Predict the structure.
Amino acid sequence: MHTIRIWFTKTGEASYISLLDLQRVMGRALKRSGLPVWYTLGFNPHIYMTFACPLSLGQESLVESVDVKTEENKPDFAAWQAALAPVMPTGLAVVRVDYARIKAEQIGSAVYTITLPARAAQAVEEYNRLTEAVVMKKSKRGEKPVDLKAYVPALELKTDGESASFSVTLPASETLNLNPSLLLKFLQERFGLPAEECSILRTALLTKDGEPFC
């Protein structure tokens, strides 16, 4: 039995597909592909699938992954990708298939690119001058204050015409996961950034040692 990791992008309208719906979408795509994926046993067998570090609604990503199992002795990963390509819905595109080499529990952080209007440069400068940026993080145990400056001490803005962007690396482990929307919400509420003109794109997942998650 092998565990196979399917890497895919999630962009455009697909960014509003919830995790539950994504499970259904990927399940249908895998069935239509005809690939030899392993099904769970029992009264109601279904395709074994595990998603790493699911995104929040409305956020895009270039590094989404789902793990499946197969009893195929020597999987042809190029053939897997070719079989999945025509059955994936708009906004979801398979970019790589390989063995799952690192367990999802080893994910330590994620890298995001936040895009906003160029006129937001002043807000970024104001953030950089702050000594603290406390937000309330919600969890199953309630709310607790988190100082964003402890994880993002400064923002480096890159401007391109009328738009601008900055990259941030935030904790994404099982013990601490900081959603980039917390930072964006802070900038919007504190400095008046227009929410409708901002976007979040996840570009990388890193292990606790800072290595690429693969």
In short: The longest helix spans residues 19-33. The chain has a mean pLDDT of 92.
